[in-house]
């Protein structure tokens, strides 16, 4: 019984549930177990799974995402973007638009240039042809290389806060709040390299949204996410949409495509 | 077993069903699970029921009250809120339409 | 300020790598101890070792940050702040090492021109830091970069400084200034040494500036207004 209770409290804390709330939830679980005369494991199942469910239940915003305002202005516009690397034509005449408050998914086979497309949007890759129009304030969540191995999560928040002239304290506070939305409580002890893949990826996502950008570019953001975190991310994406942020997300998880407003498919590379 | 399809369907409808039960009568977790089982919907484990109740509470559709019980420790009762009733009415309407469509597709509708 | 934030983050990341830092600190000491009985040699290899350690430090710092730099740019950091912030952090660490070695040289050896020894070490730093960055930007990988540095620096050790080809090696200035500082030759040797350091620094800075400007460009886009602006 002691083991279950410890695991329960620990799992709740990891998911950014406050200590007070954690204690209350444990008290209720104990009362239930006492009343039924059964050990908690038998009533609720494994402590970690139960804690995960409760943590997410506490975060749920009711209602479906708001409908997009009819004529919101564009946050991103690509026109005729092409890019070739050596002999490979990676992007061929791609045209797309993402409006404020809209979420657009980019799908396509491997090698169809999805990551390159995002880099063109972010401005780190120059297209061979075509124009890019976008808001100045963009957040980018790359597929790799987005975090510094030897810095803690808190240090990341402080660093990225300075990008837009925000104080370290504000960066920390915002970072922790955004992390909580993804069900994660950042430790100031572990460096990014010591975090598990899913947690490190959550850090990656938080850094992209830290400054409250008008346009968010996400490149397969849920590497290493469990099902619960995946749900949390989509809830967060809905929150950004409500705030008027345009979201462009590269994804290969085709199951949840009904959660985005529009889907763009990139052609497979020519052989 | 046959229970698998029921379990999947109930997973999506659990919160609505619980809301319906609570509108009829306020109750506590274990009793709600028993009522669902009596209605033929199979047994819902505590690890599923309590998070569902918590979701309803977070969304403001139900509220919880601790009440002293005659047998043992105080029990947590759930009751539906005004907003919960209104959402339930909406869901009833949606379900009626939805189940009619399913009936038609499954060939259960009486042909006129 | 952006540059300070980058410097702070770079320092924090470097300080965490304790074993690496320890080994880098020991590197010049090992050279020194090998030649301790001959004052001239001891201090020269100490300074060369400092340059080598600084180059390694900046190589790894640069290579590790290659992908992150792109992201920092998109987040809003200027290319200048990224570059200068990193240089500031590494140079500060280098200076701290330098002070330590200076004290060692003065205490353990018979040194007349303390300022000269300081200048030798300063040359090592002024060349070593940009050298490591340059190798990192050009080769982009740790192993290849480390090998390139070893080739350059080991050759530096083994080439007779009198030979003309020695002047093409990056850390020659240390030996040049040593003629004035340790062998007590006349001023022209000091000037030659400093000039070499200056020229090498200038050349490396150009390469670094050029590479960074190209690499860290945010390509042109037409700005759209955010939904909340009028």
Order the strands across the largest sheet of chain A as they lie in space. 5-6-7-3-8
Protein structure class of chain A: alpha/beta
Q: CATH-wise, what's the superfamily of the largest domain in chain A? A: P-loop containing nucleotide triphosphate hydrolases
Helix tally of chain A equals 9
**What's the Cα radius of gyration of chain A?**
21 Å
- Which word captures the global form of chain A? elongated
The residue ranges of chain A in which pLDDT falls below 50 over 5 or more consecutive positions are 62-66
Determine the oligomeric state from the structure.
heterotrimer
Q: How many distinct helices of chain C?
A: 9
Mean pLDDT of chain A: 87
Structural class of chain C: mainly alpha
* Structural shape of chain C: elongated
Distance between the termini of chain C: 29 Å
Straight-line N-to-C gap of chain A? 61 Å
CATH architectural group of the largest domain in chain A: 3-Layer(aba) Sandwich
Question: How does this structure look, described?
Answer:
The complex is a heterotrimer of chains A (271), B (112) and C (230). Chain A has 271 residues and is an alpha/beta fold. Chain A folds into 2 domains: 60 residues, no CATH class; 199 residues, Rossmann fold (3-Layer(aba) Sandwich), CATH 3.40.50.300. Chain A has 9 helices and 8 strands. In chain A, the strands form 2 sheets. Chain A has a 5-stranded parallel β-sheet, with helices on both faces. In chain A, strands 2-1-4 form a 3-stranded antiparallel β-sheet, covered by helices on one side. In chain B, strand 2 and strand 3 form a beta hairpin. Chain B has a 3-stranded antiparallel β-sheet. Strand 4 of chain A pairs parallel with strand 1 of chain C, so a sheet runs across the interface.
């Amino acid at each position: 019984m002691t083991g279950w209770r410890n695991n329960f409290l620990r799992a709740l804390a990891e998911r950014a549930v406050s200590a007070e709330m954690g204690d209350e939830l444990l008290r209720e679980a104990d009362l239930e177990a006492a009343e039924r005369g059964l050990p908690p494991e038998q009533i609720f199942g494994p402590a970690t799974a139960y804690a995960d469910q409760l943590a997410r239940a506490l975060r749920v915003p009711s209602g479906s995402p708001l409908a997009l305002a009819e004529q919101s202005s564009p946050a991103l516009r690509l026109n005729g973007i092409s890019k070739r690397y050596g002999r490979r034509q990676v992007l061929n005449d791609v045209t797309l638009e993402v409006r404020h408050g809209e979420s657009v998914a980019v799908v396509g086979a491997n090698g169809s240039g999805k990551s390159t497309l995002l880099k063109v949007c972010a401005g780190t890759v120059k297209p061979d042809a075509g124009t890019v129009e976008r808001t100045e304030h963009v957040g980018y969540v790359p597929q790799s290389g987005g975090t510094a191995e030897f810095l803690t999560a808190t240090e990341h928040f402080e660093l990225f806060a300075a990008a837009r002239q925000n104080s370290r304290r504000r960066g920390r506070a915002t970072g922790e709040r955004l992390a909580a939305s993804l069900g994660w409580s950042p430790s100031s002890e572990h460096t990014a390299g010591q975090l598990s893949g899913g947690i490190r990826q959550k850090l990656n996502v938080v850094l992209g949204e830290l400054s409250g950008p008008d346009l968010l570019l996400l490149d397969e953001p849920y590497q290493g996410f469990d099902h619960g975190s995946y749900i949390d991310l989509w809830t967060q994406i809905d929150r950004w949409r409500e705030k008027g942020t345009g979201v462009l997300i590269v994804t290969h998880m085709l199951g949840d495509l009904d959660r985005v407003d529009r889907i763009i498919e990139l052609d497979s590379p020519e052989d | 077993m046959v229970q698998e399809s029921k379990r999947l369907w109930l997973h999506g409808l659990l919160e609505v069903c619980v809301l319906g039960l609570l509108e009829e009568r306020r109750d506590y977790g274990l009793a709600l699970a028993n009522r669902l089982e009596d209605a033929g919907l199979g047994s819902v484990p505590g690890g599923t029921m309590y998070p569902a109740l918590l979701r309803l509470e977070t969304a403001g559709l139900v509220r919880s009250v601790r009440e002293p019980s005659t047998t043992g420790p105080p029990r947590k009762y759930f009751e539906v809120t005004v907003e919960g009733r209104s959402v339930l009415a909406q869901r009833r309407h949606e379900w009626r339409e939805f189940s009619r469509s399913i009936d038609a597709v499954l060939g259960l509708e009486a042909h006129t | 300020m952006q540059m300070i934030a980058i410097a702070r983050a770079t320092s924090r990341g470097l300080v965490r790598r304790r074993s690496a830092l320890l080994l880098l600190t020991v590197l010049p000491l090992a050279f020194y101890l090998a030649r301790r009985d001959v004052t001239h040699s001891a201090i020269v290899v100490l300074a060369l070792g400092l340059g080598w350690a600084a180059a390694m430090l900046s190589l790894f710092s640069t290579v590790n940050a290659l992908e992150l730099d792109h992201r920092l740019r998109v987040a809003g950091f200027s290319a200048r702040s990224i570059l200068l912030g990193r240089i500031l952090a590494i140079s500060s660490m280098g200076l701290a090492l330098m002070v330590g070695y200076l004290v060692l040289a003065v205490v353990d050896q018979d040194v007349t021109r303390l300022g000269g020894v300081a200048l030798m070490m300063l040359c090592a730093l002024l060349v070593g830091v940009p050298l490591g960055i340059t190798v990192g930007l050009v080769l982009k990988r740790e192993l290849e970069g480390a090998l390139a540095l070893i080739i350059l620096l080991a050759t530096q050790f083994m080439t007779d400084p009198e030979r003309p080809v020695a002047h093409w090696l990056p850390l020659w200035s240390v030996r040049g200034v040593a003629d004035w500082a340790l062998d007590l030759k006349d001023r022209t040797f000091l000037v030659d040494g400093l000039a070499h350091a200056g020229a090498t620094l200038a050349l490396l800075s150009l390469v670094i500036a050029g590479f960074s400007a190209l690499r860290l460009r945010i390509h042109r886009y037409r700005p759209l207004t955010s939904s909340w602006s009028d």
